[in-house]
Amino acid sequence: MLRTIDAVRYGLVSELVRKFGEARVRVTGSSMLPHLLPRDIVTVQRRECRDFRKGDIALFSRRERLFAHRVLATNDEGAPYLVTRGDSVSEDDPPVFPHEILGCVMSIVRGDSRITPSRPTFLSRAISALFRESQILTTVLLWLLNRSRRREEEAQCRA
What we know:
Elements: H1 2-20, E1 22-26, E2 41-45, E3 57-62, E4 65-75, E5 81-85, E6 101-110, E7 113-115, H2 122-133, H3 135-158
Helix pairs in contact: 2-3
């Protein structure tokens, strides 16, 4: 069932970006903690492989699944590709080729806040390294997020 949902989601997002140049996507994973949180909504704009810069967040597809990962490097010589990795993941992704790229994350909506992604600073890279090295930290953050969101939903139901 999850595979079917991923395929439908991939198809819809791909079509929106192709036709309109932009799409909004809800984040479901934790590979970009703490910069992207589950349930954040990212706005993605179509962008060509050659137009990415180090530090951008690329949305790309693999096996009908979507990934939003940080661009670590670009290769414009020969066959172009991006080198990417999730901020809280230890290993780089396999090269991302132009046919896999959907676009670049231009904004993040988290609750009532709208955030413009920026290039990682020393401090943000250090925090990401903590999440890479500590599954306990990741688990605690996700638990706190879920607890906080449950309380918000309960308060909305009572109102």
